[in-house]
User: What shape does this take?
Amino acid sequence: MKKNILYRVYTALFIGMCLAPAALMPAVKGSDSKEKRELAEMPKVKTEDGKLNFEFFDQFSTYFSEHFAFRQELVTADGRLKSAVLGTSTNPDVIVGKDGWLYYGPTADDFLGINTLSDRGINNITGNLRMIDEYCTQQGSSFVFTIAPNKNSIYPEHMPFNYVKSGDKNNYERIAEDLSGAGFWCDMKETLLNADASIPLYHKTDTHWNNLGAYAGHVGLMGALGKEPCSPGTKWSTRDDRLGDLAAMIYPSEDAKDTQVYSDYQFTYNYMGRFKALDDLDIRTSCQNGQGSLLMYRDSYGEAILPYMAEVYENAQFSRLVPYRLDQLGGRDLIIEIVERNIEDLQQYAPLMPAPETEAPAANAVYVGSEAELRQESSGAYVHFYGVLPDQCFDSDSAEIYLTADGRSYKAFNAFEARLLDREGEVSDNGFSLYVPTENIPEGCTVTLTVASSTGRAIQVNF
Assistant: This one.
């Protein structure tokens, strides 16, 4: 009798614990998600056009799994248990390292040196950057390009022991080798590794560098531009007030604070126009003590570095928009910063600038086939030509593409405009993209392409 009672009590408690998250769901309001994604909304029985939503139950299942009571507390408990006992993560986007360090999952390939870009992909990117540098020189602007290293590129010693490098060079190393000696290249990895710092330059539980790391990056960029950096102040101090984005992804119910570093320097720059936060798509600043003007294209790594850059320049613009609007450069200094894990984005779109007019090499072969694709559309003061060519047009790891229209030729960027080609998510080394002033393209004119490979072959593609 006593055993039966115990079994019943145990069963009731077990069933109660299982049902509690669902039963208490209307009463317990979950906190905002910290998982760097939007949670599913409650589905509707009918669609917007008034028809029955036959996907309702699948959508409700997703909604429930993301909103049941005590979800974040249970996810946190599971995350703490697995990271402490097994050294693993409950989220594939977070790598649990040693000594409390967390790393961003998508950086693993870069760390291991696997799934890298092809040789032609690397050449496409460095060739595109050299075209930007030539354009800046013509405009009287200084240009600097840098790659913000992934955290495990600077602090590999805290990665899990089972992440064994392949021994092959990763994308960063190959680009750095190709651009070695280029006046516009700022090797940020070398800059950070040589920085004189007694504390880490990256957050332990966040993807990004801290303020001290950003300042070291700022000094490197200013050195590449031949300018004096912003003053670091007289001393640095630390406070545990940074919410680590990686910690929030696997320990969402905790107020997991990371250490941030602060300088006592008093900034004097001002924000111009509407400003909400440092992740705004477009931010403009002015500083009475600054000199010159800056246009900086950046990603989330540019947030911590922005104050130092804004303090140096009289006028500065910080943008996260793509494509890069280089036709609005206007003699300003140009900085392009991109994080290491997104290097491949540099051959996914062409900057908006007039394509350099040049002489196309004489063709010694003609492409015969129907797989070449060329599209064009009006884009403000330009006609945007873009497309993709078949593998038969390329016979080396380095190639330049020229477009000829109305007897005038222009050099294209090696860029695969996947979204515009309705092939979003695809990657190709065979894309091209360029902007030609509208007045240079008469209506109905014939357009041809010439692909010049480093082997000496130049193949003409007719449309």
Remarks:
- The chain is about 25% helix and 20% strand.
- The longest helix spans residues 2-23.
